[in-house]
Each structure stands twice: as C-alpha cells, then as structure tokens.
Amino acid sequence: LGSRTNGCRELKESIMAVNLQKGGNVSLSKTDPGLEVLLCGLGWDSRVTTGDDFDLDSCVFMVTDSGKVRRDEDFIFYNNKLAADGSVEHLGDNRTGAGDGDDEQVVIHLLKVSHDIARLVFAVTIHDSEVRKQNFGQVKNAFIRVVNKLTNQELVRFDLSEDFSTETSVLFGEVYRNGSEWKFKAVGQGFAGGLSELAKPYGVRV
Q: b/e for 123-145, b at 16 or more Cβ within 10 A?
C-alpha cells in the first residue's frame, strides 16, 4: 500500500502544466484524472504608470448548447459571486491589478455543474473604460490558468500575447464539456464595448 501511495504521489508531481497558444485546447480530465475542483486564476498588469488605476473585472458565463445562459443568474461576476447551485464562485473584485500572481480567481466544482451547462466562458472587461479612455492595448502580461484546487497543481496556462489596441473586453478562455470529459480552450478574442455589450450575445441583461 505504501509503494502504491508513493507512486500516486510521484504521478501527481510529474504533471506538467500545458502552455497553450490561442485557439488551442487540452483535456483537463485526461491531464488529471479524478479532477473535481478547479481554481481558475486570471491576471494582468498595466502598461501605464500614470492616471487612473485599471479596474479590470473578470466574469463567467454559464451557457448551454445554445450558447446562451438559462437565466441572468448564470452570469457570475462581482455582483453575483455564487451560482445558484454552488458550482461556480467568484472570489472577489481586485480594483487595481497590483501585485504578482492571480488578480482574480474563480472556483468551479465540476461535479455540481448542471448537466445542461455546456461551457463556462471566462471574460475580462475594463470598468469605466470610456470615461477613463482605457483599453487592452494599455494592459500587459494578461493570462488565465487552471489549477486543481485540491492539489494546487497547475494544469494549463494561456498567456495572451496579442496586442488588443482598441478592445475593452476580452474573452480569455473557456472550460467546456466534451462527452464525459472537461476541456479547456484558449480563446483570446477582443471586443469593443463594455460589460453590457459583451453580455448581450449570451442572453444576459445587464
């Protein structure tokens, strides 16, 4: 029993985080069998050292196969931090982006996610971008990473290297079902407009 336990520990330690390019995907379930709880960390830094702080806000759209939410409550963000079924929890708003590591985090309990939810779409918007005249061209070192929360093992990371010169909202990535598997896709798609414009295609009224 002891040698088997040591073998499992060595297997966990040998898992290497996958670094994805835009459009790439990886099976989280195959990378880490038995995966139950994810921590999705999102981070960024400002290229600008003067003026207003950059208040970037992460959010998650819980969508069905139709590409839309079932109801507004399936939109998880700083004003609605916990999904009704407890499957997705936003851990809070970071209003400056200061410091290293994750700026905002979302926890996903995979076993609690309703079967009619096909994708969890992660996006980041700039608060008051029009008033502050800010865009993602003034943001650097943006990333999203997925961690097994129970083991603290990082499974996948996507660094957004593209220069979004005018966009004020960006889809970072998505966790989605593929049969019995959970997978992650690196998206990195920018949009003009704020939170309300980003939310409309997903059927959310902001």
A: bbbbbebeeeebbbebbeebbbb
